[in-house]
Design goal:
By secondary structure, the protein is of the alpha+beta class. It has eleven helices and 21 strands. Helix 1 links the parallel strand 1 and strand 2.
C-alpha cells in the first residue's frame, strides 16, 4: 500500500508528488496523458510561485517577469513586482521540468485515470479507469482540475459567486519586442494577456465572455498585433472553458485532500492559479507528514482568502460596461493603489503551516 496517490499529473499534482517523495513518502501519480501536457494557460508564474518551485529545485527555462501592465488602446500603467521576478514559461517546458524532477525523486507514474475513490478506515481505495482495478493508499491528493471528478465524488462540489461563463484561447507569436512584464490589454468584452516565454516569443491569451475564434478576437487589440510577427502566429490554438467560479464546500474529505483548481477556482484574470496550487500542494503534504490532515483545511483557507477576494473584486467590476471601461483609467489615476494590489497578489500567500 502506498502512502499517497496523487490523482492528476499536471503541474500542481507533480509538485505535490515531489514534496511527498522528498519527505520520505511512497507516492504514485495517476495521469493518463503522456508528458508534456499542454493546456490553455497564461503561462505566467507569480513570484511566490517561483519561490515554491525553487524550494523543490525546479527552474524551467523561461523569461523573468518584472511587473504587471494594465493597458487599453489609449493609456497604460505599470506595477513593478517588489518581491522579486515572476517567470514566463511555456506550459510544456514547465511540465517537462516537473516530470523530470518527479522521476528523479522516485515518484511512480501510472498511465491511468481514476474512476472513483472509496474511503475506508486507515486507507483509500482508488479505482483505475475502465478496468476497475483497485490501488490502495493511506491518503489521496486530488489535483484533477477545475471539473474534478474526485471533488464531485466526495459530494463537496458547488458553483459559487458569479454564474457567467468565460472562455480562454491561447497561441504564441514571435516578436522583436519581448516585454519584461506581463501585459493585460483591456477591450470592450475581453482581455489579452501578453507573456514573455522566450527571447523572441510571447504567449497571447484571450479571456472573454464571447465565444469566438481567436482570429476574431485578436483584431480588438491592434497595438499588440502591431508588435508581433503575424506570419508567426501558431496555427494551433488551445482553448479552455467555459470557466465558471467553483469551490469545494471543504477541501478535506476523510483521507482525500483537494489541491489546485480541484479545490477552488475564481478566474484566470490575475494569473494566480499555478502559484496558489503550488503552495497548496506543499501545505497538503505538510499536513500528511505532520499527521494533522484536518489542519490543511484551515491552512488552505488562509492561503486563498486574500487572492480570492482581490480576484473576485476585479472580476465583478469587469462585468459591467461602465465600470469595466474605467478599470484602466482608474489604475492610471491611482498607480499606488494598483501597485499595492499587484504586489499583494505577487507576494502572497504567506507560508502558513498546515496545523
Amino acid at each position: 500500500m502506498k502512502d499517497v496517490i496523487v490523482i492528476g499529473g499536471g503541474p500542481v499534482g507533480l509538485v505535490a508528488a515531489i514534496h511527498a517523495a522528498r519527505r520520505g513518502l511512497s507516492v504514485t501519480v495517476l495521469e493518463p496523458r503522456g508528458a508534456p501536457i499542454d493546456k490553455a494557460c497564461g503561462e505566467g508564474i507569480m513570484p511566490h510561485g517561483v519561490r515554491e518551485l525553487d524550494a523543490i529545485g525546479v527552474r524551467p527555462p523561461g523569461m523573468p517577469i518584472h511587473g504587471i501592465v494594465y493597458a487599453d488602446e489609449r493609456r497604460s500603467v505599470r506595477a513593478p513586482m517588489r518581491s522579486g521576478p515572476g517567470l514566463g514559461v511555456r506550459r510544456t517546458a514547465l511540465h517537462l521540468a516537473l516530470t523530470e524532477a518527479a522521476r528523479g525523486a522516485g515518484v511512480e507514474t501510472l498511465a491511468a485515470a481514476s474512476s472513483g475513490v472509496a474511503i475506508h478506515e486507515g486507507r483509500v481505495e482508488v479505482s483505475l479507469g475502465r478496468t476497475g482495478e483497485l490501488l490502495r493508499s493511506r491518503y489521496v491528493v486530488a489535483a484533477d482540475g477545475l471539473h474534478s471528478p474526485t471533488r464531485r465524488g466526495l459530494g463537496v462540489d458547488r458553483a459559487v459567486g458569479l454564474r457567467h461563463k468565460r472562455f480562454g484561447l491561447v497561441t504564441h507569436a514571435r516578436t522583436s519586442e519581448v516585454p519584461t512584464d506581463v501585459e493585460v490589454h483591456w477591450a470592450r468584452d475581453g482581455e489579452l494577456y501578453v507573456t514573455p516565454v522566450s527571447e523572441d516569443v510571447v504567449g497571447l491569451a484571450v479571456l472573454s465572455e464571447a465565444r469566438a475564434p481567436l482570429s476574431a478576437k485578436l483584431p480588438e487589440f491592434p497595438s499588440v498585433l502591431a508588435r508581433v510577427d503575424r506570419d508567426s502566429l501558431e496555427d494551433r490554438v488551445l482553448g479552455a472553458g467555459p470557466f465558471r467560479q467553483r469551490s469545494a464546500r471543504r477541501v478535506v474529505g476523510g483521507r482525500v485532500l483537494l489541491v489546485g483548481d480541484a479545490a477552488g477556482y475564481v478566474d484566470a484574470l490575475t494569473g494566480e492559479g499555478l502559484s496558489l496550487g503550488f503552495a497548496q500542494a506543499r501545505l497538503a503534504i505538510d499536513s500528511l507528514v505532520s499527521g494533522r490532515v484536518q489542519g490543511y483545511e484551515k491552512a488552505w483557507r488562509r492561503t486563498v482568502r486574500e487572492p480570492t477576494a482581490l480576484t473576485g473584486g476585479v472580476l465583478l467590476a469587469s462585468r459591467w460596461g461602465p465600470v469595466r471601461s474605467g478599470i484602466v483609467p482608474a489604475a492610471v489615476a491611482l498607480p499606488t493603489v494598483f501597485e499595492a494590489i499587484v504586489n499583494r497578489l505577487a507576494g502572497a500567500p504567506a507560508h502558513p503551516s498546515a496545523r
